[in-house]
Amino acid sequence: MHAIIQEYLLDKVNKKLHLSKIKHAKFNESGQLLAFYIVSLFWGGDIILRENLLNVSALWEGYPHNNMTFLFKFFFIIQISYWLHIFPELYFQKTKREDMASKIQYATLYLIFITASYMFRFTRLSLVLLVVHYLAEVVFHTCRILAYAERTNISSKLFRLGDLLFVLARLSSVILTVLTFWYGLAQAPMEQQVVDLATGNFNTGLFRLNALVAVCLLQAWLMWNFIMFQVKRMREAKAYDVSSAANAAKARKSEQERAKARKARKEQEEKDDTDLPEVDQNTKKSLRQRVSAK
Fold it and tell me: In sequence order, which residues have a C-beta less than 8 Å from that of residue 276 and are 6 or more positions away?
């Protein structure tokens, strides 16, 4: 699937856009991620509707959630497989060393949280959080592709929507996690709040606290990176505006200097004319008229 999208879609678009090497690599990355996020978003949304997970209490009721439909379980297998394939892809695509760190970082985080939620039977909450997160990512990578395609009039508006969705995704993720681990699962009878590997029950205070802290820390880290990115973008925009204003002022100043130079030359010529005898002044004036007529 990766090769099909690259060869029959992204490569053809790249040839028309004539992007630089850096933009070419980022365009391909956003294109691949966008395709995966869109498929996962619709797939996850379909499972949410089928499993009636729009009801918030369904996120913790009936825990441990061992009985999963084929599509539900296959969804998590595909998620884990996709983020695993990022590591060999770095080698086959000959990714630059400076670009590897960020890709390894986000692939590792996806793997840790998705695998942990699958092992500890927190799949319902994990599915909802992934769908919320993927929605914001779809908008972001769509804007990124449009920006590289020089559709800035559309991408600039969508970027604002993407920023709003990102903040709402972080907020809703924290709320759902707190409701599930702090409130919902804590309502189970005390005799059921034990670790039971046979039934897949990990509903204990320690597991709930660790899971809650891990998800909240992840959301805080994502929000911090988002804030730093916005600050950097505002500084770059301000620096660009200052540079543009300086260039415009410099251009106006040079134009004024040229105007002053022309005026000074004209005054000097008039002064030189007044120093000549009257006959020479008339002769020079007639010569200027002839030159201007030509």
Answer: 284
- Residue 243 has a CB neighbour count (10 Å cut-off) of 10
CB 67 within 8 A of CB 73: no
In contact, 202 and 121? CB cutoff 8 Å:
yes
For residue range 59-80, what is the model confidence (pLDDT) as tens digits? 999 999 988 999 999 999 999 9
- Cis, bond preceding 64 (omega within 30 deg of 0): yes
Rounded CA-CA distance 269/124 in Å is 89
Residue with tokens 């850096």: 22
Q: Is the pTM of this model over 0.70?
A: yes
Residue-wise pLDDT for 127-169, tens only, equals: 999 999 999 999 999 998 888 877 778 888 888 899 999 999 9
Angle (CA) 110-85-17 rounded to 5° is: 95
Contact present, 100 and 93 (Cβ < 8 Å): no
What one-letter code names the amino acid at 154? I
Rounded to whole angstroms, the Cα distance separating 241 from 136 reads 29
Q: Give me the count of residues in the chain.
A: 294
Which H or E run contains 195?
strand 195-196
DSSP string, 2-53: HHHHIIIIIHHHHHHHT--HHHHHHHHHHHHHHHHHHHHHHHHHHHHHHTTT
What are the residue ranges of helices labelled H in the chain? 2-5, 11-17, 21-50, 70-92, 97-119, 123-148, 152-178, 205-275, 278-293
Count CB-CB contacts under 10 A for residue 236: 10
